[in-house]
Amino acid sequence: xxxxxxPKSMEAWTRTKRSxxxxxxxxxxxxxxxxxxxxxxxxxxxxxxxxxNTYLDYVLGWGPNxxxxxxxxxxxxxxxxxxxxxxxxSGHEFEYLAAExxxxxxPAFDRLVWSNSGSEAAQVALRIARGATGRQHFVKFSGHxxxxxxxxxxxxxxxxxxxxxxxxxxxxxxNASRDAVVLEWGNLDDLRATLTGRDIxxxxxxxxxxxxxxxxxxxxxxEGVREICTETGTVLIFDEVITxxxxxxxxxxxxxxxxxxxxVLGKAIAGGLPxxxxxxxxxLLDLTQAGVVHAGTYNGNPVVLAGALATLxxxxxxxxxxxxxxxxxxLASGLGDQLTRHGVVGAVNQVGPVVQCALGVPAVRxxxxxxGADTKAYDLLxxxxxxxxxxxxxxxxxxxxxxxTEHDIDTTIRIFGEVVSVSSPGVG
Length: 428
Ligand code: PMP
Known about the structure:
Belongs to the class-III pyridoxal-phosphate-dependent aminotransferase family. The chain is of the alpha/beta class.
């Protein structure tokens, strides 16, 4: 066993590896440095690990815990339902109550379907788009992520190392992945040329490129994409798995005022419980009752939907998004100041409560610039942050919740400054 400052986590990970492949529930979590930390619980913006250390949490379960850990309203809602059963395989009142709450946030739309993860919902959206248009292919953009399934796991990090195919995974269906036409984000001429006269059912994109640098769309770009899709009869899908209920109650649709044909929601929608949805107009969504197969034993689970209703109720309180945005700005400008003060080359981006910190590059305005960041130096920095009680994601993204305070953020900025000032080898 390696020497570690987190002996109980290491012990738990070693034991977990004997039964669970890699000792982690998703491959990405194996990237955690120095090794995965095992937690015993969370409260508000804090997590406690098996060794008894407490951290300010900027991982938030990779995004979902937007109202923090153990929020009393969420806990009460889940407990209130689970006592009456975990699932019915038939209708119940939370199905419409939660659906109405989501549609309140997306007033341009009048229908949704439930599913359990962002990956699933993205598949449903693409299937609806193909069903509606009778076309086969779809456009996605380099660096944008839409889940781990065969058709969409292309052009995310540039293909599997050592392989000439665009597919990112060993074992991925080459046929399915050929449905995607991968373009550079931000170029309307390319998009117009690709969509004109081609067999393209849908354009799917992250309205803010959160998965690769937290990059906002260029001015007028979303409007341009909307126009080209309308002209060519292509279904425009916003993947709002990160941005939904996070940039505004109505996500990127509300923030940028551009209405796609379908929006895919996940993560923040249920405060940490597994839920996703596709929202849109009834003409498209009702295809799921007219030939487009959308299935799932756990779809519309009552415990999860009770939790979603409670989460949305907390989020829609007056001032939530102004506060989340202010916290995001405070963190971003604090991290940026520390980099400048200590002469460390780096870039900080921010949209609402989502922040990206990249080392070794002066700016991150494109996927290519994001890919130029020094991830090894960032990994070293993450370990130093962890040692000082700050838990953040590999890759440089930070998430804030309604439970973080200005004081938490100032503490984090001070710790970040301390870490970059000792300038761990490789940082700078
Ligand atoms: N779309 C986007 C934009 C995402 O960020 C993610 C997950 N990070 C997904 C889809 C897939 O969601 P899930 O992990 O819930 O399947």
